[in-house]
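To: structure desk
From: M.T.
Subject: fold request, one chain
Message: Could you run this one when you get a chance? Sequence is below, nothing fancy, just the single chain.
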Amino acid sequence: MKDTTIKHLAQGLKLLAGTAVLTWSMAAQALLIETHGGLELEVSMVSMPSSDNGVLSITECSDCKRQVLKTSADTTRYVVRDKSGKTDQFSRQDFAAELRRIDNRDAMLVVFYKLDNQTVTEVLLMSNVLLDSPINNTQDSPGQNASDQSGNGQSENIRPAGRSGGFSR
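Reply: Done. Structure tokens follow.
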């Protein structure tokens, strides 16, 4: 009789524990709040900020409204990952130079930002060009501007030379 009571008690405790876990799981899901957004873009869709505390402009198509996201020296990271998987963090100026260095069809950008204040947290350049490879575009081409040193927060137009196209995976 004592064994039967202990078995029933153990089964009851398992059922109670399972119910508690299920209830907690459902409550935790209800508390999930989306705080960040991300955009996967061709390099030609993005205009880089001309200063650390500027704006990054995104135009996804010729008929699309331009989206403007704020950048900050304190919160925005510029990261490049090459085809070997090597990842390095760059200053804004060096990141813009890296964008000019590559051909648009050899890369894509992923922009992560906070939804509440539209502030960029990271710009990730995924490139088919190795980070240590020689520069293949040494001359400015139409559509490229030298870095604006005015610090006025306006976007500079960074458009790599070459044909437009997607990132080949």
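Reply (cont.): The beta strands are 36-41, 46-47, 55-58, 67-70, 77-81, 87-90, 107-114, 119-127. Let me know if you need anything else for the meeting.
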